Automatic annotation (TrEMBL):
Domain Heterokaryon incompatibility residue range list: 41-132
Pfam families: HET (PF06985)
Alphabetical list of PANTHER family matching this protein: ANKYRIN REPEAT DOMAIN-CONTAINING PROTEIN 39 HOMOLOG-RELATED, HETEROKARYON INCOMPATIBILITY DOMAIN-CONTAINING PROTEIN
The protein's name: Heterokaryon incompatibility domain-containing protein
Length: 136
């Protein structure tokens, strides 16, 4: 489902979400863009979580397994920012292509620095963790 990127143009991929109600399946499009001329987007910083615990999202109509932590982040930000364009490494980089991963890792500083904002996902609330944020 991943089409090769134009490495001479320093392309990367961005996710755009289809509108969806909370708790519905995540459907998104993955489109390439040149890093230097990309449309407005946000970058996602998160922990991958346990790779053996996954959920399904639909990318360009195809099923893709992602970690539960990433699924929760995508679901949260999709609902919070309708129409958001997002870069998330586990989806936007073809994880099965070692050469592409190497090229994209070299672009990550540029990808994060050109994002309009970086969204941080620490995970869903557990054991009254909101109290720690209130204290901060």
């Amino acid at each position: 489902q991943y089409k090769p990127l134009q490495t001479n143009q320093h392309e990367f991929r961005l996710l755009t979400f289809d509108a969806g109600a909370s708790m519905s399946n995540i459907h998104c499009e993955l489109k390439p863009a040149p890093v230097d001329k990309a449309p407005v987007y946000s970058a996602l910083s998160y922990t991958w979580g346990d790779p053996s615990v996954t959920r399904t999202i639909f990318v360009n109509g195809q099923r893709l397994e992602v970690t539960s932590n990433l699924y929760n982040a995508l679901s949260n930000f999709r609902d919070l920012y309708p129409g958001i364009r997002l870069w998330a490494d586990a989806v936007c980089i073809n994880q099965d292509d070692i050469e592409e991963k190497g090229q994209q890792i070299q672009l990550m500083q540029k990808i994060f620095s050109r994002a309009i904002k970086t969204l941080v996902w620490l995970g869903i609330e557990e054991d009254e963790s909101s109290k720690a944020f209130d204290l901060i």
